[in-house]
């Protein structure tokens, strides 16, 4: 029984560390670092040429809004270039883009996945900085200026922008959960960046030095993460710049969000196997510490530890006797309450009753459930490299 209790507490502490402890530890480490690190980066006066790169598949509904947003960005017009790769699109996306004379379009009728579209586009880019973003995300007006500013530090090889979620109905299950998740994720990314380096970048908005680009495997599921992490593995920093942000609406419903999370989960497993150097503390101890604490623990530990914790907790309470009040009974009660709220949240969203506090536990449960399904798909090799975009709310 003692051994089971030890295992229970170890797993519980690690789950707490994965969700909250790492963020608290980072906050303390960053505060200590600021006491001793007064280094300032001098700003360059000459702005470089940049390319805004959009790999789009069947994004007809977003083309005009995206182009309008891009043309209004606060950056010298003669130094801002636009490239869209619309491979495989069959809804007229490429024809809509073609009417804009200042946007270069590459189109191949065959669909081979986003990463292959990126490989094609990168072969013709000759600006020193390339900025990747999605067709359905709009950028803040000064986003490019803020990104370029971060590259003034010669150690920075990649810049990650911030993803922001908006929803016309802030009390929806997806809107509440996804918005809260990205707020906390943004905090962690900012702390990561201030401590050492951000752990990967999201495809909604990130930039790299063009000379650092290396093609990744053609079956890569998380191209943005793989591209940025390999830059970090090669000794460059990923800088997080929240002032440069991309905003989009939340997924249209839980089914669409789950589809997106499952693909990310399958890609997470794939990325873990392909980023072995990031797991080697002798290569870069700080990167390994951040990669395991921020990503690996939530990808490959928490989803599979939670059911074990619940089973161990119930077994320990049963053996100690239900009438004996103990910390184990309190923890078990809290776990049962969490899953009960999750079920109620699922039911309420299905009948369109909006109680925001019930949706957050439901969203957390859904993320961990997606990790199980994603792992199964990765093992079976059934997750397609072709990205099926989740429908977004209006």
Structure write-up:
The termini are far apart. The chain has eleven helices and eight strands. It is globular, with a radius of gyration of 22 Å. The longest helix has 36 residues, at 285-320. The chain has one domain: Spore Coat Polysaccharide Biosynthesis Protein SpsA, Chain A, CATH 3.90.550.10. The protein has an eight-stranded mixed β-sheet. By secondary structure, it is of the alpha/beta class.
Write the layout of secondary structure elements.
Elements (H helix, E strand, L loop, with lengths): L1 H35 L13 E6 L7 H9 L8 E6 L7 H6 L4 E4 L7 H9 L6 E5 L4 E2 L3 H8 L5 E11 L6 H23 L9 E5 L13 H11 L3 E13 L4 H21 L10 H36 L6 H24 L5 H25 L14
Parallel strand pairs: 1-2, 1-4, 2-3, 6-8
Antiparallel strand pairs: 4-7, 5-8, 6-7
Helix pairs in contact: 1-6, 1-9, 6-11, 8-9, 8-11, 9-10, 9-11, 10-11
Helix/sheet category: alpha/beta
Annotated CATH architecture: Alpha-Beta Complex
Low-confidence sequence ranges: none
The helix content, as a percent range, equals 40-55%
How many domains is the backbone divided into? Answer: 1
The largest sheet is: 8 strands, mixed
Count of DSSP helices?
11
Using the coordinates above, name the CATH class.
Alpha Beta
Query: What gross morphology would you assign?
Result: globular
């Amino acid at each position: 029984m003692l051994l089971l209790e030890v295992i229970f507490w170890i797993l519980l502490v690690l789950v707490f560390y994965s969700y909250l402890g790492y963020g608290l530890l980072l906050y303390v480490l960053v505060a200590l670092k600021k006491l001793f690190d007064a280094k300032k980066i001098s700003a360059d006066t000459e702005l470089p040429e940049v390319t805004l790169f959009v790999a789009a598949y069947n994004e007809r509904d977003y083309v005009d809004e995206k182009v309008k947003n891009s043309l209004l960005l606060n950056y010298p017009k003669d130094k801002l270039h636009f490239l869209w790769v619309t491979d495989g699109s069959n809804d007229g996306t490429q024809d809509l883009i073609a009417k804009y004379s200042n946007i270069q379009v590459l189109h191949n009728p065959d669909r081979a996945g986003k990463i292959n579209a990126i490989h094609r586009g990168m072969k013709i880019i000759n600006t020193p900085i390339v900025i990747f973003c999605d067709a359905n995300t709009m950028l803040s007006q000064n986003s490019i200026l803020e990104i370029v500013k971060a590259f003034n530090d010669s150690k920075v090889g990649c810049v990650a922008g911030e993803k922001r979620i908006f929803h016309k109905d802030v009390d929806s299950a997806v809107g509440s959960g996804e918005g809260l998740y990205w707020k906390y994720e943004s905090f962690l990314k900012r702390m990561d960046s201030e401590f050492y380096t951000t752990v990967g970048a999201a495809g909604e908005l990130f930039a790299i030095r063009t000379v650092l680009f290396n093609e990744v495997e053609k079956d890569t599921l998380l191209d943005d993460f793989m591209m940025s992490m390999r830059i970090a593995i090669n000794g460059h920093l990923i800088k997080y710049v929240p002032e440069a942000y991309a905003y989009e609406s939340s997924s249209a419903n839980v089914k669409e969000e789950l589809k997106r999370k499952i693909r990310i989960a399958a890609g997470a497993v794939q990325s873990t196997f392909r980023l072995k150097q990031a797991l080697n503390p002798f290569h870069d101890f700080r990167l390994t510490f951040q990669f395991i604490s921020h990503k690996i623990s939530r990808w490959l530990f928490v989803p599979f530890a939670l059911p074990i914790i619940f089973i161990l907790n119930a077994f320990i309470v049963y053996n100690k006797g239900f009438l004996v009040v103990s910390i184990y009974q309190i923890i078990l009660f809290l776990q049962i309450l969490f899953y009960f709220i999750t079920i109620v949240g699922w039911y309420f969203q299905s009948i369109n009753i909006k109680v925001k506090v019930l949706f957050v536990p439901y969203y957390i449960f859904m993320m961990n459930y997606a990790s199980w399904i994603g792992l199964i798909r990765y093992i079976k090799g059934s997750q397609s490299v072709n990205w099926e975009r989740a429908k977004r709310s209006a």
